[in-house]
Specification:
Largest sheet: 9 strands, mixed
Number of strands: 13
CATH superfamily: Ribokinase
Low-confidence stretches: none
Bound molecules: adenosine-5'-diphosphate
Order of helices and strands: EEEHEHEEEHEHEHEHHEEEHHH
Strand content: 15-25%
Radius of gyration: 18 Å
CATH architecture: 3-Layer(aba) Sandwich
Helix content: 25-40%
Structural class: alpha/beta
CATH topology: UDP-N-acetylmuramoyl-L-alanine:D-glutamate ligase
Shape: globular
Number of domains: 1
Strand order of the largest sheet: 5-4-1-8-9-10-11-12-13
Mean pLDDT: 95
CATH class: Alpha Beta
Distance between the termini: 38 Å
Oligomer: single chain
């Protein structure tokens, strides 16, 4: 039914080499790496053979080139990505704290990343698309919200589907409008891809079982729950939950694991695989991604993920 599409921020990520508290003194950095949750998702989707396209913008600069080259190499459709002549490509400086949380210095709102809208190229891609994936991180971005709100009814009218990754960030302000959009997307989603506590946040109730029940009542048809180094689960109404034990890997850089997981899960399901097989592939995509520095560097092809699955031990429950 046509490609999977995603709308939102395209960035370069520049990472601190050391763990610590923010960026208030000179530190060693590594990067730039191609990034942005929607870009990571679409890159992984395309890499395993799902037709996938991204809607967003980069600047006419080296950072933009880096992102476009990466997406093209991964096999993504970049026809609806604007190259802005005036504004630079978006960026994020990232540093991990010892507790695993992250500090960011973003340049998104005032960069090319936020400067796109409905265009002929977007219209063409949307009218071909069979699935829309929405990243919660796009909800505070007016340009992304406009495109998503226009694209969704078109895709649904064609019999296409919607997936939603809540992608909560402490830097995003959930004002009344953002909160309403968040709720609407949960209610409209066929597939939800929360991680950890985002499940309860999406359902609006506490406890895993209660949250799952509530989401099924809201007509969500499938939930792929990401549990970091504890693996992942899939829930579907009327079926027993499926659990995938995490692969045992050396975690070098957790950035992008959830987006790779999502891209691999959605692409696998859309390629016609069952939830169990899709979960195995997605679990592998997330795990493999954390073994490389850079959010898009560890995404795998179908073949690479197959090899990874065959060769990598899994944790016992
Ligand atoms: P998010 O980035 O959205 O918070 P997670 O951190 O839960 O997502 O990671 C997504 C998926 O990637 C996990 O469900 C798991 O399958 C895999 N994964 C992430 N971190 C690890 C890890 N350290 N070891 C093994 N698998 C991992």
């Amino acid at each position: 039914l046509g490609p999977t599409i995603c709308v939102g921020e395209i960035l370069v990520e520049i990472m601190a080499r050391s763990v610590g508290d923010g960026f208030r003194e000179p530190i060693d950095l590594v990067g730039p790496f191609a990034s942005g949750a929607p870009a990571i998702f679409i890159g992984q989707c395309a890499k395993i053979g799902g037709s996938a396209g991204l809607i967003g913008a980069v600047g006419r600069d080296d950072f933009g080139r880096l992102n476009l080259d990466r997406l093209k190499a991964d096999g993504a459709d970049i026809s609806a990505i604007v190259v802005d002549d005036l504004y630079p490509t978006g960026s994020a400086f990232v540093r991990y704290r010892s507790d695993g949380s992250r500090d960011f210095v973003y340049n998104i709102a005032t960069s090319a990343a936020a400067r796109f809208g409905w265009s002929e190229a977007v219209e063409t891609l949307v009218h071909r698309a069979g699935h829309l994936h929405v990243m919660g991180s796009a909800l505070s971005m007016g340009s992304a919200v406009d495109v998503i709100e226009r694209a969704l009814p078109i895709i649904k009218a064609r019999g296409g589907s919607l997936s939603f990754d809540p992608n909560l960030r402490k830097e995003i302000v959930y004002d009344a409008d953002t909160e309403r959009r968040f709720r609407d997307l949960v209610a409209a989603a066929d597939l939800l891809l929360p991680s950890g506590e985002e499940l309860e946040r999406a359902a609006g109730v506490e406890g895993e079982d209660a949250a799952i029940r509530r989401l099924f009542e809201m007509d969500v048809k499938e939930i792929a729950l990401k549990c970091g180094a504890a693996g992942a689960k899939v829930f579907r109404p009327g079926a027993a939950p499926i659990f995938a034990a995490a692969f045992v890997v050396d975690e070098i850089d957790p950035t992008g694991a959830g987006d790779c997981f999502g891209g691999a899960y959605v692409a696998s399901r859309r390629l016609g695989l069952g939830p169990e097989e899709a979960l195995t592939i997605a679990n592998a995509a997330g795990a493999r991604n954390v073994t490389r520095q850079g959010p898009m560097e560890g995404a795998g092809t179908r073949e690479e993920l197959g090899r990874f699955i065959a060769e990598t031990a899994r944790r016992s429950r």
